[in-house]
Structures are given as structure tokens and as C-alpha cells.
Amino acid sequence: MDIATDTLRSISATATREGAGVTVFRTIGTPRLRELDPFLLLDHIDSDDPDHYVAGFTSHPHRGFVTLTYILDGIMTHKDSLGNSGDLGPGSVQWMKAASGIIHSEMPKQKDGLLRGFQLWINLPAARKMDRPEYQEYAATAFPVVRTTAYIVKVLVGSFDNVIAPIKDDVTSTSLYDVQIRPGARFHVTAPAGHNQFIYVFEGGGKLLGHDMASRSLFIPEITGSAGNSAEFIAGEHGARFLMANAKPISETIVRQGPFVMNTRAEIEQAAHDYQTNQLVRDKALLHRNK
How far apart are CA 10 and CA 256, in angstroms? Predict the structure, then answer.
């Protein structure tokens, strides 16, 4: 193993009101961590109190990036201005490449019970920000799972141990996994050299690089070496479950304002103008759905 440094940065989630009044736990996209190129935002919904989520995310626009929505428990209904709609149930994922422009809503289908899930925003490079929008949506059974005596890895985007996720990403080079580790077991956290990486713990905890890793916290292993990034996670007595992601940085100037992420202030002003004059949605979205 070729390791040059082995530090760990941690960000505790901040409870934030979003949408029409939904409580989310945010790590990326806060004053402590504005972005982790190309990751722009990470929100975690986790509540069995309908007052925290029933208002949902009413109709709103996006331009310039990808949103990935992963539902763990509960059902979220989505609709957009082009007539696309569907239900995201437990274990399902939607990859929405907003690109040139989408106006959509995401509303809980349930009135009570547990709602858990994530939304991750991933930046697009300047040359692809005005691409035609695209949806990819898959049910839980579409995603491959790698099982050992120590861990279970659900491959959401990218590949792991020679299995490949159904979501196709030819732009951002993102890999995303849902990792569950049994109590006291070990798991090697890895990423290609030059990629930014994060781990978001949402059940249990453990240790990585000698640091305690608690739930509702995001960790950024800063491990560099020509062979890539690698470190050992040791789960605690209750085991651990976390999202693990990595991607190659885009390394471009970012200008963001609410639901728009572009490269210049003029592009942001154009996006706002397009939305106000009903010109944001330029192309009908491509839809790839596998139930």
C-alpha cells in the first residue's frame, strides 16, 4: 500500500429546513463544507414524524448539475413539468441530470411512518451544463449487492468487486455505495488516486485512521498515494452503515445560487431569467426507467 498522508476531516450534519418545510440533515453544502468537488450538497432525511417531511419539496427548478435521490424507507413521488412522474420506494434510486433545465417536485406519498433517504448534488463540467436533461430510475432489485462474512455493499453508481451498477454516468466519474459492516468487522475504504472521497455514517459507527466515526457525520479521508486511497474501517459494537462516494474533481470555478449551479454570474442571471420567463425547460428529458 502506497500511502503518503493519513488524515481525516469530519463534518457533523446540521439540521436544516428545506423545500416546503422538510427537516434534512446537511453536511456538504454548509458553511463548514461548501462543496467537495464535484459534490455540491448532501442531504439526509431521517424521521418518523410526518411534521418533519409531509410538506415535501414542491415544484422547483434545477440547472447545471445532477441530483441523485436514494430512498431507504418510505415512498417519495416525483413529477416534472414535462409530464414525467413516478414513485421512489425503499431501496430505489433516481439519477436526474438536470443539465439545461428541469422543473420538478418531490412529495412523500405516505402521511405517516418512517421516511429515510438521501439527496446528493453532483456538479457538471461547463461543457456539459447545457446538455439535454436525463432521468435514470431503478427499483431496489436492479442494484447488485456484494456480500461477505464481514460486510454488505450495495453498488449504486460505478463498480465494486467486478460488479457494475445499472446507472450509467459518462460525465462525472462518480462511484457511490451503501456499505453495511457487521459489529467488529473490517472494511477497506478505497478510491482511485486523484479522486475526492467522502463517507457519511448514518447507522452505528466505528474507527477510521484512528478516529471515532459517529452517526450523522461526514468524513473525508485525506489519503494520497500513487496507488490510490485506502484505509481500514473497523466497525463498532453495533456495526456500521454508511454511504461511500468518490469522483474525479472538475476543478472549475463554481457560481451557485439556490437551484442553479453554473460557472459565471452571467450564467446564473440567465438561468434566473429563463425560469422567470418560462424558458428554463428547453428540451424534453430523456427517460430511462427500470422498475
Answer: 24
Which residues sit in the known binding site for Fe cation? 60, 62, 104, 106
Domain spanning 7-282: CATH 3.90.25.10: no
Query: What single letter denotes the amino acid at residue 169?
Result: D
Secondary structure of the chain: what % helix, strand, coil (to 5)? 5, 55, 40
Domain ranges of the chain: 7-282
Q: Using 50 as the pLDDT threshold, list the residues of the chain that sit under it.
A: 1-5, 225-227, 291
Handedness of CA 71, 153, 98, 291 (dihedral sign): negative
Tell me the three cell numbers of residue 178: 451503501
What is the structure's pLDDT at 229? 62
**Residue holding cell 454508511?**
242
291, burial (CB in 10 Å: exposed 0-12, middle 13-18, buried 19+): exposed
The pTM of this model reads 0.92
